[in-house]
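re: ur question from yesterday

yeah so i grabbed the chain u mentioned. its 556 aa long if i counted rite. heres the sequnce exactly as i have it in my notes:
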Amino acid sequence: MDYFSILNLKKEPFSNSPDPKFFFQSRQHLDCLQKLELGLRLRRGLNVIIGDVGTGKTTLCRQLIRRFSLDKEIETHLILDPFFSGTSEFLSTVYKMLKGYKPVKGSNDWQIKESIKQYLFSKGVDEKKTVILIIDEGQKIPVFCLEILREFLNYETNEYKLLQIVIFAQKEFEKTIDLHANFADRINLYHFLKPLGFRDTRLMIKFRLEQSVDPNRTYTFFTRPALWAICWATGGYPRKIINLCHRCIMTMIIQNRSIVNFFLVRSCIQRVFPNRVKKIKIAVATIGTAVIIMAGLFSFAGLNPFKFPEFLKSETVGSQVSLPGNSKIAGLANPQRFAASENPKVSSGSDKTFKGTQSKSSDMDTSGNIEKQTPAEALLKKTSQLAVDNGFPEIIGKIKLRPNQTLSGLIQTIYGSYNSRHFKSLILANPHIDDPDIVDIGQTVALPAIPANLKPLPQKVWWIKIADRNNLEEAFKILEAFPNNEPPIRLIPYWNSRKGIKFAVVLKKYFLNEKTARLQLKRLPLSISSKGKIISSWDVENVFFADPFLASSLQK
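ran it thru and got these structure tokens back, copy pasting raw so excuse formatting
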């Protein structure tokens, strides 16, 4: 789910893909990168980078490749998974990677090694190029591969190594190195990546947000206590920080909040890192107790109580958020207004409005206490009450996700536009979807009945209706089968008391006169035009779930 579009961001700030553009140059990562680059340019041979899962090894690896990509004097090769079944497979892989084609059939290991040696001498001595072999997931390297790599390091001149090797590995690779002293002796750079501290955690989150926004605007999302909680819960591991921040932003949208505060982070931690919640409570209680005791001591001594710890001040990164159009997810002066939005109007030139817009259910539970509802829950309750009062179902249909189909694309197709109201209602109607960004192909998605806010045109217009279906899946099959070289089509779901739920398939264009509409209908393939129909009005009793007047263009 591309939630970033709701927040007026250009791209997703907390994607878990190792995008080099999101490489945050923390002090230790920058130090490691500079040492690596220096060692490789001096052609000193073997370099090993060790780090726990999620410390940024893969991102560092991509950044290294990116730095050398425009240098014609450097040739880089990457092995993503170094687990090989035997020496022949490993040597053949390196041979093909360097030369671009497989070894001659029947070549033995010695012959392949000699061919690799000749290639490296040709590149390193004759062409004066630096050849770099980068291995990610180095902890998977079999012992026999270490021996071959050691042999490669023996290919050298009096001044430098002909093959530069960089291994990025998890901590268990240390044991492998300890057991093979002849390999360890050849290591030029041995660097251990550590988790980020609070300062770098805060700056990394700020950096990612800045990379995702319009350069002329800044955004506020995380308070200082929230940042502290994120650092504490994740232990400073970049991958965990990114995943938790993503979860926090999603929760902020669904709960219709303007910022991510400490308590929202803590609720997200309960789902992502359940074992860390208790520790955070203990830490906060300890800090609070210390603050009270020290404040009492200072007051007793006649001094001013010390200021609250800097990292717990309720400050935010950036400035206030502004959101598109009528969206009221964040930066909202009064979030409750979202749940009390105007009643949708249903019309095709008519002023008919929905009745029964006031909820008949009480906001009190059985014990007489006021129920606490998020604005999103209130919105779902209101939509459900509209369905009860007007007779239409709460769900207009279900559909299985196709390949390359996203939830945002599905919303756009069904409702004609994508906004926060559609997104939140869809999430609430599908509690089985844990992460809107990761939805499997074939997963069934329920589409809630969300009455559209119609915006009728001042003049009369005509539509070309291709088909009318009772089932959402059948309507989708028409969309998929429609020829690409024909005018684009769209879906208009609607309901009325006589026909029930219907899905009209129409051309995206509507027309200012009937003659133009008929000419367009005749231009369509006979199989489509023979079943097509020109309409100039809709049943006044229709409840639309997509605005028929929303079109990409108007044909005169």
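noticed a couple things. The radius of gyration is 31 Å. also The chain is about 40% helix and 15% strand.
anyway ttyl
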